[in-house]
Amino acid sequence: MPDWTELTINELQSLLTSRQVSAEEVTRAHLERIASKDSEIRAYLTVAEERALEQARAVDRRLAAGEPLGPLGGVPVAVKDVILIRGLANTCASKMLENFIAPYSATAVERMEQAGAIILGKTNCDEFAMGSSTENSGFYPTHNPHDLSRVPGGSSGGSAAAVAARLATVALGSDTGGSIRQPAAFCGVVGMMGTYGRVSRYGLVAFASSLDHIGPFGRSVRDVARLLGVIAGRDPRDSTSADVPVENYEAALGRPVTGFKIGVPEEYFKGLNPEIGDNIQKGLHLFGRLGCEIVPIRLPHTEYAIACYYIICTAEASSNLARYDGVRYGLRAPNPAGLRDLYKQTRHQGFGPEVKRRIMLGTYVLSSGYYDAYYLKAQQVRALITRDFVEAFDEVDAIVTPTSPIPPFKLGERLNDPLQMYLADIYTVTASLAGIPGISIPCGTTRGHPPLPVGMQILARHFDEARLLQLAEAFEREGGFHIHP
Question: pTM of the predicted model, to two decimals?
């Protein structure tokens, strides 16, 4: 019997429409694989078996009635546990929300379900999406499918691992400073963050509101383009979602990229792991074979990006997480001595160490006497980083960098060294600060045993997702150094 978990969206839907397989059979195949494999990977926090099977039967009934499949009809999808799905637990991988059931669904989820998607469950992540390894989950760490002793990246490590291990066809994650792109690189899959405002944040639990994005994972660029096309677009329930037309992203795929100018910033190749550098250089050579022109560029304010990002994101996290006070919803500490003690004990018991660290940092940089020196200064630096990109895109069509300076690291290796953990985001936070779209695609492996995935990041100007996907798919089609765990 064929393995239905290996298929792309187009392959799967071709078999569904020709009635060679049913949506229920495909869903059961994924649920069986989750049951047999996820005990070692730990990608999922919640598996919604009955809900998924009912959605699959509904797809089969529509097919039997002669109705066409939607863009995601019959496609098994996993969703990061910071994105609300009505009736399912939404824990944000935190003890604070361990028993919270979502009262409504995110816009991105509603659009997927309207397109016929089958939601398998909710995936593990760093608590409240704060981390780069999925080790900060309040429940258990997720393991990298390529090497179970290593991290899958974070914070969307569960979604990336689920797609890499064929526990879902595609998945949704969230990206604040690299939380889709970095785990995509670590797990050898494709992960994309659109322009800020391209996808509605309604129903995404807030971490840093000026930086948060929802975006797709897939095992192919075409699958990511399909999922992005479904979830993108203006949403009146999110005031930051952009009223900009959504292009037909799949129509851009397959077009030649001859003559595209690709910028390579020297700042992204300092202190880089040599094996990652070698693979990125091979990737740039491949773009040259495709007819692209490789252009050295400068992004001079890159060196300030990590400090700038961790001031802004912690300040916004401090404000956003003030709502978890033991009064309205979520955890409430028992038998408090008074209101102040209720707040103190609830937050002490509910939040993990990394969340507490970021709340304290954020409260400090927003405090009287420090606001101008830290938060205001960081916003000014953010404007300079954005200007660097705007000026670069006057000269080039896209920018190529490594996604991460290092390969996937061992579980526990950086857990007690927050600064080293934060530096894992050094190549991804810049695009987040500038609000431009970025994608990570597989670009070879290290030479160790087992070989570990390397990710290449491609960046484009605001709302130029179609060009980004066009370049990524051309790279993938030409060879792309794709790997399987």
Answer: 0.97
